Amino acid sequence: xxxxxxxxxxxxxxxxxxxxxxxxxxxxxxxxxxxxxxxxxxxxxxxxxxxxxxxxxxxxxxxxxxxxxxxxxxxxxxxxxxxxxxxxxxxxxxxxxxxxxxxxxxxxxxxxxxxxxxxxxxxxxxxxxxxxxxxxxxxxxxxxxxxxxxxxxxxxxxxxxxxxxxxxxxxxxxxxxxxxxxxxxxxxxxxxxxxxxxxxxxxxxxxxxxxxxxxxxxxxxxxxxxxxxxxxxxxxxxxxxxxxxxxxxxxxxxxxxxxxxxxxxxxxxxxxxxxxxxxxxxxxxxxxxxxxxxxxxxxxxxxxxxxxxxxxxxxxxxxxxxxxxxxxxxxxxxxxxxxxxxxxxxxxxxxxxxxxxxxxxxxxxxxxxxxxxxxxxxxxxxxxxxxxxxxxxxxxxxxxxxxxxxxxxxxxxxxxxxxxxxxxxxxxxxxx
Amino acid sequence: xxxxxxxxxxxxxxxxxxxxxxxxxxxxxxxxxxxxxxxxxxxxxxxxxxxxxxxxxxxxxxxxxxxxxxxxxxxxxxxxxxxxxxxxxxxxxxxxxxxxxxxxxxxxxxxxxxxxxxxxxxxxxxxxxxxxxxxxxxxxxxxxxxxxxxxxxxxxxxxxxxxxxxxxxxxxxxxxxxxxxxxxxxxxxxxxxxxxxxxxxxxxxxxxxxxxxxxxxxxxxxxxxxxxxxxxxxxxxxxxxxxxxxxxxxxxxxxxxxxxxxxxxxxxxxxxxxxxxxxxxxxxxxxxxxxxxxxxxxxxxxxxxxxxxxxxxxxxxxxxxxxxxxxxxxxxxxxxxxxxxxxxxxxxxxxxxxxxxxxxxxxxxxxxxxxxxxxxxxxxxxxxxxxxxxxxxxxxxxxxxxxxxxxxxxxxxxxxxxxxxxxxxxxxxxxx
Lengths: 432, 432
Known about the structure:
The structure is a homodimer. By secondary structure, chain A is an alpha/beta fold. Chain A has 15 helices and 16 strands. Chain A has helices at 13-24, 26-33, 64-69, 86-95, 105-121, 138-145, 160-172, 176-185, 194-197, 200-214, 233-241, 303-319, 321-329, 363-373, 405-416, and strands at residues 3-9, 36-43, 60-61, 73-78, 99-102, 126-127, 151-157, 244-255, 258-269, 281-288, 292-299, 348-358, 378-383, 393-400, 403-404, 426-430. The mean pLDDT of chain A is 93. At the A-B interface, helix 2, helix 6, strand 11, helix 12 and helix 13 of A face helix 2, helix 6, strand 11, helix 12 and helix 13 of B.
């Protein structure tokens, strides 16, 4: 059987998983690739460090140049995280004639255009299934399986850490800090969880998907983004009573005014599939104009699910499918973006609003009046009895009918100026 | 831009949908294919019949030979249903040098080996995403996106007609005949629904998936199959009270004793994703050893969802990806089957059993005794009070712990021989 030399750069969790699949399941990969994927090099920073995995003699090296010089190696999975040296390694690999597979979404979100252009110039390819939603093969599904569709919307839970934390808050009534600590203890959150909990990680993934689905060339920092770190357990509780769950949603929707993109905690109606995504799972609901709604659910991270995506990409690259896809799709090419970004203020939606108000007569009327002045009508109201042990304010929770972002913002601002209303109102979108 | 000639044979619902996508969305397909897919021929039986779709002049023909002779046409979607003349047309297309796309699962289930072997001999390819689960791209996901995995199990709702009928029975308490009539009225069931409601359609699809996922070469008639036509609304009601829904499940699982394959109505725990699949939707839960569980949900039939799969396959074929996949996977090749089919009797599972018993003392003890004699222990029992208006029997519903199929069958047979027990006990598996 034909042999294709393959290599890994980086031997963290995912790298070790990919090595296991390549070494222990050689028959399987050979069956799907029609050739043996022969692991020849694993390049690491420190070749002397103790590792959990037995590699064949001579495979482990800390000399990238050895790999770059080995012309028998055609496919390399670049699994170093962060921006540098990952970016430089990626360019070196492409320049030495390797096709590259990567799981590094931050690198693609920051330097996608540069890397993809360089790969095209050199006649090479980059595969990146593992960069979004781990084990869920969403990149292939959007760019290939659903290619007869104009994708109309993407609603995703793309950050497992956030979903784990917010599910804990919902289930146990835990506050954010407690749920985060528990997630860290169980390994579902990094020691520094900033990129996960502030929505950056989900925004990077959404930027990649928006490029695939809509041809949008947009930096992940250029659309509205809010993480779960600002979600109060009070709102999770009220949302539940109203029949919703709060989830961190990555949202993209093609509208006549342009493409709407946002990452934010939103209220999702209980019973809808996205509301029921538990623990650290990821899920996506994608609507195509021909296929209608398609829903995907699976492990969005973790050693073997991510390695599953990496090795599938290595197989696709070895057999030549990636080259075709990469060439035809012209990802991140210099061509004009196919869609404009919609002006955020014009976007319509329903909102959950919470005001802390003085327990005096007439407040609800004042709030309703100011909402009405901006054309916002109320779908439901939930007003709590005052807690005798606490300060003399009560929360008023309002779910609105459809209104524009701009109107909702203006109304909330004016309501917060009322002397009877606290100056820190809360607001979430309700997922449509 | 480069042009690839494409054609359709058959212009029913799906054919008209595919024609619409090719004609109205040419820019889109060109963007994904890197070339224009140029619809040159639509071959039908009767070219004079009035149709809902405007085709360009000269495209419609009732002469297949014109298409066979046109060397500029490389990709043909063969959308004629049934076995003949579909099989002959397929062979003629392959022999005249066309790569073929099809949605005809019955043809593949019956003649897959012959057609695939012929395609291979001729250096041609067959793509068949649309043959299973309509708009859900499950063929590509199993054979390509999850290729780093050993698939361990498939649990699917693959027949939308059955799911619509049984959902109606569950929601409205309708009996089978009423629900079927309503499905026919709404177009969710064919005038002759036999293949859908007796489980044949789901079994054909499962046979195709089992081949892709496990390398099993098995005829769809060679594993246990039961449809929803035998499901009594009584059992749907009891199942609901016990916390389950009855769904028609296509089930494949790799076990140490071999591959278990079955299509049958089973009890699915409420809240599990497969239990919540409504209307005519399809869904699959697939477990891979690396990726873990992945869940897919979408439209399993209908004009545009199926056309979405057909046109995606035409794009894949035009760009060359199908050729690679077809060649490396060696589907239905003469090689040995990679798995044996497990002996049905040895398979373990939990069961729902319903006995109609005389309302006399000691019956439950007798039933429990006979179950116990076969090593079957009882997880829960539901016994109804007798209905004073009806005959003097009462249903006893039992949910068992794990037991083998053989033991369950023997125990049920012996229980039905008791003079106090009716001779038509009911039994369903509980989905694990």
